[in-house]
Amino acid sequence: MNRLRDVIERAQNMENQMDSWTPAEKETCKSKYGCDILIANGSYVEVCTKDAPSDAYIVKYFLDEKICFDLTRGSKIKIFDMYWDKFRNNLKSISFGYGRFNPRLWGYKTPEKKKRK
């Protein structure tokens, strides 16, 4: 019975969540600030994942009186500039993430091997 209640609460929370970043804003943040938002408006457990690059930061901010968390890659100064321009005084903290992957290898795809004759 507790599991069912948890699933219902999660579904209601997902419906009530408001996206803090539009797809257009996510694309412009890459070119304007050099930052990449990996997880937007996630829970603290989601952004504390170890399946992320080691240079990712956890950003904590308020949106509509709710605490929100993002997992973002980039330099700390650029991340601060990006979030300050968007949220101003609602930005609360920027801290290191828990990722374990080498940033150079993040998203790396191995090339296909050519067949030998």
C-alpha Rg, in Å? 17 Å
Within the largest sheet, what's the order of strands? 1-3-2-4
- What number is the mean pLDDT? 84
Main sheet properties: 4 strands, antiparallel
Poorly predicted ranges (pLDDT <50, ≥5 residues)?
none
Distance, first to last CA: 62 Å
- The count of DSSP E runs of length 2 or more, i.e. the number of strands, is 4
Structural class by secondary-structure content: alpha+beta
Proportion of strand residues:
15-25%
Total helical elements: 4
Helix share of residues?
25-40%
Shape verdict: globular
Write the H/E string, N to C.
HHEHEEHE
Descriptive tags:
four-stranded antiparallel sheet; alpha+beta; 117 residues; 4 strands; 4 helices; single chain; 25% strand
